[in-house]
Amino acid sequence: MPPIILVEACAPSATENCDDAQLPDPPKDFEAEGCGASVKQVATLRGGIEEARWVCETVETMDGRLIAGISIYRHSGSFLYLAHFSAISPDEVSRFLDGISQSLAASSGDAMSR
Asked: DSSP alpha helices (H): ranges in the chain?
């Protein structure tokens, strides 16, 4: 039973970069599941980390109708993708994502850290 949290991250190295990652565009990619009306929110966090966030109400999943909160954090070629699915309210999903956002900061090595 939810909550379900999915996380994907990429930090570039000398031999690989993160440019080929297929990060979702939630209103477009998850429109059929109920995310088409979500509005992108953009913020700049500590150390210059850029966040793009969507909260999708009433998303159809295998577990039934859930609220989805999706954040993509980017900094210096790195990214962290986080999706949170649960039956809690959209405001509670936003507060969960706020907590994640507040815990992130860019380190002196230009990678995101906690």
From this structure: 26-29, 90-103
